[in-house]
Amino acid sequence: MNSTSTPTHCPYCALQCGMNLSPTPDGGVEVLERADFPVNRGALCGKGRTAPAVLSSRVRLTSPLVREGGALVPATWDEALDRIAGALGRIRAEHGADALGVFGGGGLTNEKAYTLGKFARVALGTSQIDYNGRFCMSSAAAAGTKAFGLDRGLPFPLEDIPRSGCVILVGSNLAETMPPSLRFLTELKENGGTLIVVDPRRTKTAEHADLHLAPRPGTDLALALGLLHLVVAEGRTDEAYIAERTTGWEDARAAAMAHWPEYVERITGVSVPQLREAVRMFCEPETAMVLTARGPEQQSKGTDTVGAWINLCLATGRAGRPYSGYGCLTGQGNGQGGREHGQKADQLPGYRKLDDPAARRHVSEVWGVDPDSLPGPGRSAYELLDALGTDIRALLLMGSNPVVSAPRAAHIEERITSLDFLAVCDVVLSETAELADVVLPVTQWAEETGTTTNLEGRVLLRRQAITPPEGIRSDLEVMHELAARLGVEKGFPTDPEEVFEELRRASAGGPADYSGITYRRLAEESGVFWPCPAPQSVDPQSVDPQSVDPQSVDRVMVADSGDASPAVTPDGPAREAEVRGAHPGTPHPGTPRLFLDRFATPDGRARFVPVAHRAAAEEPDDEYPVLLTTGRVVAQYQSGAQTRRVDELNAAAPGPFVELHPRLAARLGAAEGDPVAVVSRRGRAVAPARITHAIRPDTVFMPFHWPGEGRANTLTNPALDPTSRMPEFKACAVRVEAVTPAEAARD
Ligand SMILES: Nc1nc2c(c(=O)[nH]1)N[C@H]1C(S)=C(S)[C@@H](COP(=O)(O)OP(=O)(O)OC[C@H]3O[C@@H](n4cnc5c(=O)[nH]c(N)nc54)[C@H](O)[C@@H]3O)O[C@H]1N2
Ligand SMILES: Nc1nc2c(c(=O)[nH]1)N[C@H]1C(S)=C(S)[C@@H](COP(=O)(O)OP(=O)(O)OC[C@H]3O[C@@H](n4cnc5c(=O)[nH]c(N)nc54)[C@H](O)[C@@H]3O)O[C@H]1N2
Ligand code: SF4
Ligand SMILES: [Mo]
C-alpha cells in the first residue's frame, strides 16, 4: 500500500474482499493488494480486480435522464428530481400512499438500505417496499430464525471452516461465486477434514469434494431427510445434546423416519450407498458443518429444505459448538446488512419486526414520528413487482435490475412498462433503467463511504478513495432531495456517518444490534461482528426496554475477535461477563461466534422443525420433460449490469449458454455451440449448447446474467415459498429443442 492508497472493500459479492485503491491520473482508481484483511488476505477474483472499469465515463451514467417524446434525454438534477417528486406526490394524492412502490437491493450499503426503508415509510408513507434479497437468501433467513431464534448468515467466521472435521456444502459453487473463499476448503482438506458437495452439476467446487452428491434439482429436502433417517437408523444421534439444547425432536424424528433411503434414492437419484457414505463422513469426526447457498434455498420449499439440513445438524449435536454448525453463504455485497435495517417489507432497523408494537415505538422515537403513522408490512419482492401497473402506479428502484433478474421476467418487464411512473437510481443504464421515466446517476463504491456487513456478520467500512465526477450524486443525496420536495425537510442526512449514528440508535437493543459499532472502530479493526451493543452508558433513553431481546445479545458467546487466531475460548460466556460486567464502560468486542452457550430462542434451545418432502411446484411431464436450473459463472455478476460493461470479463464470459449432458444433446442432434431453444410455460430462450458430462442427463443449466433472447429468467417459475416468499429459481420444467439454421438466422 502506498501513501495515497485507501484500504476498502470490493463493490460486488458478500465476501467483501479487502483491497487498496490508489487514484489514477484520469480520475479513476487502481486496485492494489490488501493483505491485512483476513477473509481474502489479498486475493481477489477477476470481478474485484476489474471493478474500476465501471467508474469510467465510457460505460457509466454521467447525467440525469428524463423521458421526452419516448426517448431518454439529459436533464438537470433539479428538473429530474422535480419530476420524480411531482409524479410521486400526484400519484399519492390520487391513489393513496400504497400506490407508491420502492424496490431496493442487497448491494446497497447499510446507510442506504436504512435510509431507503425510512424514506418509504416516513417520506412516502407507503408499506410497499421490498428488495432483491428476497430472491437471494430469504429461505435460509426464515429457517435460521425458526430454528435458532436469530438469523445471521454464518454464525462463525470463515476461518473456522478449516478447523472442522467435515463440511457439507449444499448448492454452493463458491469456487466461481466467491473464489478467494476456496482457500478455506483446501485448508480443511489439508487439515484432514472432508468435503461433501451437493450439486446437480459437477462444478469447479464439486471437483474439490471427497464426495459429490448430484441430486435432481429441487430434491434437497428429501436428501437431507434421508440422511437424517440413516443417522437415526444407525444410532448416530447425539441424545445428550438433543435433550439439553433442543426442543421438538420427537416430531422431527418421526417426519424423517418416513423417508426411507430407497425412497429418497428414487426421488433424488442419489444412491443409498452414497447416502450412507455421506452420513459416515459427517458423523465420524467430532465436529462438522453444513453450509447452504442458493441451490437448496431458491426453491418453493426452500425454508423447509434449509430446516431439514438444520435438523440434521441438531440431531448430531452439530450446532452452537466450536467448529460445528449450520451457516448460509449470503450473496450480495451487503446481503447480510441489507436484510437487517428496514428495506424488507416486514422489517424495521436492527432486524426488528414491523408488526411488533415495541419495535414500532422504539424506531418511531428515533425517527421522531408517531408510531401510528408507520405503515404495516407490505408485499414480498415478486408480489410487489407483479402488482406494478395495477395497485402500484409508481416505482422508485435503487440497486436492482429486475428486467434481467426477476423470475418470469417477460411478465415483470410488461408490468414495469405498465407503470404510470418509474424512477431508477443506478450507476449504469441497466435494462430496467432503460424503461424509466427518470434515471438518476449515482456514486459508486470508490466514490463514497459506507458500511456493509459481509456473510460472516462482520460489519466493514468501505471508504471513499476518489471524488465522484461532476454531475453525479449519492443515493443518500437523492433521498434527501426527494424527501425535501415531498415536504419532509429533516431526517434524511446525506453524510453516511451521520446516517450510521442514527442507525446505531435505531438498532440498539434489536437482534442485529450495531449500537456499539462506530466508524472510528471500523477504521481501526478488520470489521466488527454484530451483535455489538453499546456499553450500557450509551444512549439508554433511545432503547425501549420492552423491545430489547435479551437473547440476542446476552446469551450469545463472545469469543476472541482476533481475526488471525480463531481459537475458541471455552470460557466464552464467562469472558463476556468479564468484558461487559466488570468494565461496564468498555466497548463490546463484537460477536464472531453465536450460540455457543445458548440459542437466541426464549428458552435458549434450538427448535427442530418437522418437515416432509414435497415436489417442486413444476415437475417434468410429457410436454416439458427436462428440469431447468439456473445460476452463475465466475466472470459475470448478477444481472450483469456492471460486469457486462467490462471488456476483460466479457472476453471470459461473452454470453449465455445452455449446459446439457451429451445424451440429451445427442437426442436433439445438437453439437457444441449450436443454438438450442429452452421452452417453459413462461416463454422461450435460445442460447448456444455447452455439452458436458458434468450435469445430470435430466437437467439443463443456464446462467442468468444476460438480457434478450438468452435470458434465463424468461423461463423461470415464480412459484413462491409460503414462508420466505422466495421464487423457485432452481427448478422448473422445460423442453429443449434444436434450433434449425433458418430459425437461427431469423432469431
Ligand atoms: N461470479 C459471481 N459471483 C457471485 C454472484 C454472481 O452473480 N456472479 N452473485 C453473488 C450472489 S448475490 C449470490 S446469491 C451468490 C450465489 O452463490 P451460489 O449459491 O454459489 O451460486 P449459484 O450459481 O446461484 O448456485 C450454486 C449452485 O447451486 C446448484 N444447484 C442448482 N439447483 C440445485 C438444487 O436443486 N440443489 C442443489 N443442492 N444445488 C443446486 C447450481 O448447479 C450451482 O452450482 O453468489 C455471489 N457471487
Ligand atoms: N434465474 C435466476 N435468477 C436470479 C438468481 C438465480 O440464481 N437464478 N439469483 C437471484 C439473486 S440471489 C439475486 S441477489 C438477484 C440479483 O439481481 P439484481 O437484483 O438485478 O442485482 P444486480 O444485477 O446486482 O443489480 C444491481 C443494480 O444496481 C446497480 N447498483 C450497484 N450499486 C448501486 C448503488 O450503490 N446504488 C444504486 N442506486 N444502484 C447500484 C447496478 O448497476 C445494477 O444495475 O438475482 C436473482 N435472480
Ligand atoms: S470474491 Fe467477491 S468480494 Fe472478492 S473480489 Fe470477487 S467479487 Fe469481489
Ligand atoms: Mo443473491
Description:
This protein is an alpha/beta fold and 747 residues long. It folds into 4 domains: 6-55, N-terminal domain of TfIIb (Single Sheet); 65-136 and 335-504, Rossmann fold; 138-328, Dimethylsulfoxide Reductase, domain 2; 626-746, Barwin-like endoglucanases (Beta Barrel). It is 30% helix and 17% strand. It contains 25 helices and 30 strands. A 7-stranded mixed beta sheet has the order 5-4-18-17-16-6-7, covered by helices on one side. A 6-stranded mixed beta sheet has the order 24-26-25-30-23-27. A 5-stranded parallel beta sheet has the order 10-9-8-12-13, with helices on both faces. A hairpin with a 2-residue loop joins strand 4 (65-68) and strand 5. Helix 3 (110-124) crosses helix 19. It is globular and about 70 Å long. Residues 537-582 have low confidence and may be disordered. It binds ligand MGD (2 copies), iron/sulfur cluster (SF4) and molybdenum atom. Residues 105-108, 132, 135-136, 294, 298, 331-332, 398-402, 404-405, 425-428, 430, 442, 475, 630-631, 638-639, 641-642, 704, 712-713, 716, 729 line the site of one ligand MGD. One ligand MGD binds at residues 105-108, 132, 135-136, 294, 298, 331-332, 398-402, 404-405, 425-428, 430, 442, 475, 630-631, 638-639, 641-642, 704, 712-713, 716, 729.
